[in-house]
Each structure stands twice: as structure tokens, then as C-alpha cells.
Amino acid sequence: MWRLELERDNLRTAVNWLLGTQDWNAATQMSWNLWIFWWIRGYHAEVRGWMNQVLEAGTHLSSSARARALGTSGAMALAQGDIANAEMCCEESRSLFKSVGDDLSAARNGLVLGLTGSAKGDSRKAGAWLEEAAEVFRKTTSHYWAALTVSALGMLPFRQGDFDRAETLLAEGHDLARKAGDRFSRYIALYNQSRLAQSRGNVVEAAGLFREGLVFSLEVGDRANTAYCLEGLAAVAVAQGEADRAARLLGGAHALFEMVGARVYTYRPDTSLREQTMAAVQDQLDEEAWETAWAEGKTMPLDDVVTLATSLVDGGEQVPATQSDPAAFPRIQSWYPHMA
Question: In angstroms, rounded to a whole number, what is the distance separating the alpha carbons of residues 13 and 23?
């Protein structure tokens, strides 16, 4: 993933050149193949703009090119929280892929549609989409997409309080991610397993899983998931009576979210975790202490925020924020010149 980041400007130039020459097939193929990269790096609005250019070509598009444009746009819409457009785009994309016999690409749209259903709280619809997609992926060697789909499927029984069923599916998702040899699907699975452990009251297990997911997120350069893991570890900290540490972790997570510009990953089962953690912190700290710690977290170098988080688990062993990706995580101040 970090190699793609180093080539980011070249990739964007290439897509814009293809659009300029009206090579819709190549432009959509490149964008469709890279949508996980666009998603992780936060290029949601830009990529949707590209795909809108393609879709405006109308009758000049092949069915496959239109399907790719719609599917890519739908995934970016989901990342931005635009659930209605994500659903509309991916339903049409899925139908087009099915019409040309591309069941794997249709199943990728099924995953996104499952996530839209989950985001809307429609577990029945989400389950139908995800089960169908998982069945397709399980029959192939697409462990990567199978891992993402089964992990998402596991969160449906979690929301319904069926922790045993959730545990089975989440373990399968994590095993598939290991087989895929992929860190993105690994940290998605780890986050979900962390929340399950947390909900069962297994604080130590949750902390270890959040920590492992944090490391993978840093290696990939996924700012949004790094922030979610920091929030998870903030919840662990406040449960252990370390409200000041929790406040600084929440501040660091907030700075990352401001950078990304969207709270992506609708696989998160409990959007109230942040509010619950903040309320617990504010119960333990007076207003001045809370505001001071929060502000410190927002302006801390990310290396320091990560060390603060991981020392909950490993006693202070430093995990550098730039482990594998020298370009992905500049210090937080450099994203906000007024903080430097």
C-alpha cells in the first residue's frame, strides 16, 4: 500500500489523462482495481468526481465500464457516509456485472450493499447481501474479499447480542485474512474482535487486539482505522481509571479524523463508543483537566500518541508511527500549519 502512496501523484495523473482522452474503459478499470487504496487514503470526493465524468458519457460506455464506474463511486459514497447514493450505485453496478457474467465483481458490490444495510440498521437486508457475497468468495481463492465479507457478516449477530455466533464468524474472517496475507483485512477483523471482547468484559483481551490492529493500521497508513483503534484503547484506558491518558488518546484520534475528512468504516458496530468514552473521561476529570489533556492529544506527534496507546498493553515499548510507510504519517502538526 505504501508503494502506491509513493506513486499517488502518478496514479492520479494517469487517471486524469485517461479521462481526458475519453478512454473510459481504462479509466474505470484502474479506478475499480484501486478503490481500496482510494478508500484508505481518503480520496473519496476526488474519485467520485472522476467517476461522474465517466458516467456523464452515457451511451458511449460499455456495460462493464459503467458497472466499474458505478461500483467505484458507490464505494466512495459509502466511505463519505452517503448511504443512499452508495446503495443506488452499487445495486445498478451489481446488476450490470451479473449481466456480463462477472460474479466476483458483482459480489464485491454485494459486500458494499451489505455495509449500507448495516449502516441503516437493516440487519435482514445486510445479511442477505453479505451471505450471498460470502458464498461466492468462499468458492474461490479470493480470501481477501471473503475475509472482509465474513468479518462484516459477523457484526450482525454481534449487534443482536448473539456473541457466540459473532465469535464464530469473526474467527473465520480473521483466519481468511491470515490466508490472504493481507494487513487491511486483518485489522478490520481485529477491530471487530476487539469490540466483541470489550462487550464481553474481556478488557485485557480487547486491549491486545486493539493494539495489534493499531500496528497493522500504521503499517498500511490507514489514518481512519488508526483513529478507531486509538478510540478503542482510550475506552480501555478509562476503564482502568486512566482518564488523562484516555483524553489524550481521544484528542489524537480526533486530529486524525479531521485529516481524513470522513468517518469511514461502517463495519463499526457501536458508533456511541466515542461518546461513551468521552462521558466516562469527563466524569473522572474536571473541565480544565479534560480540555488540557484533549488539546495535548490533538497536537502530540503521532509517534507519541501511539506510544501512549500501546503502553497500556506492553509497558511502553515504542511502536513507531512510520513503521513501513515513510510518507503516510507526517506529524500531526504538519497537517495543521497553525498548530506547528
Answer: 14
Left, alpha or beta for 222 (phi > 0: left; psi -120 to 50: alpha)? Answer: beta
128: left (phi over 0), alpha (psi -120 to 50) or beta: alpha
Residue 106 zone, left/alpha/beta (φ > 0; ψ -120 to 50; rest): alpha
Q: Nearest CA to 84 among 51, 117, 45?
A: 117
Residue with cell 470522513: 262
Average pLDDT over residues 133-156: 92
Residues 6+ away with beta carbon under 8 Å from 231: 249, 250, 253, 273, 274, 277
Coil, strand or helix at 157: helix
Cα–Cα separations (whole angstroms), residue 205 to 128, 212, 239 = 31, 11, 13
Among the listed residues 196, 150, 202, 152, the one whose alpha carbon sits nearest the alpha carbon of residue 176: 150
213 is written with which cell numbers? 490492529
Beta carbons of 243 and 277 less than 8 angstroms apart: no
Q: What's the pLDDT band for 196 if we cut at 50, 70, 90? A: very high
Please tell me the distance from the alpha carbon of residue 134 to that of residue 147, in angstroms, as a whole number: 9
Q: What residues contact 83, with CB distance under 8 A and at least 6 apart?
A: 77, 116, 119, 120
User: How far is 17 from 31, CA to CA, in rounded Å?
Assistant: 13
Distances 16 to 1, 12, 71 between C-alpha atoms, Å = 21, 6, 19
Dist CA 321 CA 325 (whole Å):
9
Query: pTM, whole model, 2 decimals?
Result: 0.83
Domains along the chain with CATH numbers: 81-181 (1.25.40.10), 182-340 (no CATH)
DSSP helix, strand, coil percent of the chain (3-state; round to 5): 80, 0, 20
> What tens digit of pLDDT does each residue of 34-68 get?
888 888 777 888 899 999 999 988 767 899 999 99
Residue 222 has what DSSP assignment?
A: -
